[in-house]
Amino acid sequence: MSTHEKIQEQFSVLEEEASLNEIVLYNDDVNTFDHVIETLITACEHTPEQAEQCSIIVHYKGKCTVKTGEYDDLKPRCTALLNAGLSAEIV
């Protein structure tokens, strides 16, 4: 008669938590849908469909998260939105 031993190994998994930020775009009464869409395509690398959907959400809801990522990636994108006359911030 033989015996089988089961050994349970313990190990820890280290997960790197990336602190993700968001660019939030706000509605205004100045910029046209076309301008917002073109700016989102250029600054945030949106597809035309994404940019259009975001512009509609901003129009009806007042704001929309348009890009999520690390701060260093978002800073120049947010600056491009602001330079185009849009209202945006990184949160």
TrEMBL record:
GO biological process, one term: proteolysis
Keyword Hydrolase assigned: yes
Superkingdom, taxonomy of origin: Bacteria
Keyword Hydrolase: yes
GO MF entry, a single one: peptidase activity
Pfam families reported for this sequence: ClpS
Protein name per the record: ATP-dependent Clp protease adaptor ClpS
